[in-house]
Amino acid sequence: MSCRLVDGVAVPDAVGGHRALDFCNTRAGWGAPQPREYLTGARALGVWVREAGLLDAAQVAPLVGGHLAAGTERAALERVWLLREALYACLVGRATPAQWRVLEAEAAAARAASRLVAVAGGDRARTVGAQDRPSPAGGRAAWVLGVLPLAPLDHAVLAIAAAADQFVTSPLAGCVAACPGAGCGWLFADPRRRRRWCSMAVCGNRAKARRHADRRGSVSAGPALRSAQGQWGVPAGARPGLLAAVVAGVGAEPGGQQASQQKDH
Ligand SMILES: [Zn+2]
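Above are the sequence and the zinc ion SMILES. Below is the predicted complex in structure-token form.
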């Protein structure tokens, strides 16, 4: 679980292998008491949808610029969170019938708002508008969202729903794994069943440091030091840089980071 700042918004790194999985990864700490939320408002939603390649800059401009009708933002966010919760549960095999219905309803809405058109190609054709509008010369057809006029927030939600629809109906949906990193739970496609972490550089190294610290602690630490570790949850023997990353990863806010800086969580 790592992210970067884009236009002042923390955008999770795309490690899932599909936009539907990366959408699930806009929350970290699945199952944890204090999960980390990345989709905190319409602006964050707009930036993420654009960075994920689901919509283009013009289509998300009202979201990123804050030009929305009053009262629409909260409702749209709750809809997005509900869809994400349902999608995550479905992909890890823990969906309730109600969650399946949420996913089904949003996927159906995305399909209803799409039109089958001839397109120039590219895997973005399923959800993106402008460049994929009907082309008389096109030899391939695809369901395209955005041919019909949509309100910006609806467009963003339905673009996500279309990506979710595309993924859950693909063979790759049976090859999803969840990162076991502390406070993570990010999803990624793992068709070869060889990958354990969302990112070896972050969650993998954290776990490695913890194992190393546990080994050192069990050999050399006295009762007082072991007690301190238990109190603060800080691994003994961690290198300063890694220790800083571990501490910064808990409750860190994106505002204090540099634009191009990678950080945990
Ligand atoms: Zn992870």
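Residues 114-149 form one domain.
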